[in-house]
Amino acid sequence: MAKIIYPLAQVIDVKKRRVDEAEKVVQQKRQALELEQEKLKRCEEERDKAKQHYQNKLKQLRDELDQGTTSDKVQQMKVYLKVTQERVKVEDKKVAEQMKQVETAKKNLEIAQADLRKKRTEVDKLEMHKKDWIKEMQKEMQIIEEGELNEIGNIIYSVQQKKSR
C-alpha cells in the first residue's frame, strides 16, 4: 500500500506554530497581570500606611485637645493633619489608577486566551479533517487495489483457460 501524504500538512504545521506563539502571548499576559496585581498590592499597602498615619495623627490631636495645649501647637497639628489627609487622597488615586491597570491587564489576558482557543480550534478541525481524509484515501486505495487484484485474477484465469484448451 502506498504512503498517503496529507496535502494540508504544511497548513497544520503553520497553525500549530501559531498556537505555540499564542500560548507564549498568553503566558506573557498572565505575567503582566501578576505584575500589575503586585503593584496594586504595594499601592494599597502605601495607602493603608498613609491612612493609619492620618488616624494616628488625628488621635494625637484629640489627645492634645483633651489635655489642653497651646493654640500654636494645635494649629501646627491641624496643618500637618491636612498634609497627611492630602497624602491619603494621593495614595487613593494611585490605587484607583493601578486598579485600572489591573483591569486592562485582565482584559488583555482574556483576549489572548480567546485568541488561543480560536487557534487551537482551527488546529483541531484540521486534525479531524486529516483523519477523515486519510480514512477516505485508504478506502479509495483499497477499492483500486481490489480492482487491480480482480483484473490480475481475470488475466490469470483467462491464461489458464487458454492453456487448458
Structural class: mainly alpha
Mean pLDDT: 92
User: Fraction of residues in helices?
Assistant: over 70%
Low-confidence stretches: none
Strand content: under 5%
Shape field: rod-shaped
Q: How does the major sheet shape up?
A: none
Number of helices: 2
Instruction: Give the domain tally.
Output: 1
Query: How far apart are the termini?
Result: 36 Å
CATH architecture: Orthogonal Bundle
Number of strands: 0
H and E order: HH
The CATH C-level class name: Mainly Alpha
Write a structural description:
This protein is mostly helical and about 160 residues long. It has one domain (about 10-130): Helix Hairpins (Orthogonal Bundle). Helices cover about 95% and strands about 0% of the residues. It has helices at about 10-65, 70-165. The longest helix is centred in the C-terminal third of the chain and has 94 residues, at about 70-165. The two termini are about 35 Å apart. The model has no long low-confidence stretch (mean pLDDT about 90).
Compose a concise summary of this entry.
The protein is mostly helical and 165 residues long. 93% of the residues lie in helices and 0% in strands.
Reconstruct the topology from this structure:
Elements: H1 9-67, H2 71-164
Based on the model shown, name its key terms:
165 residues; mainly alpha; Helix Hairpins
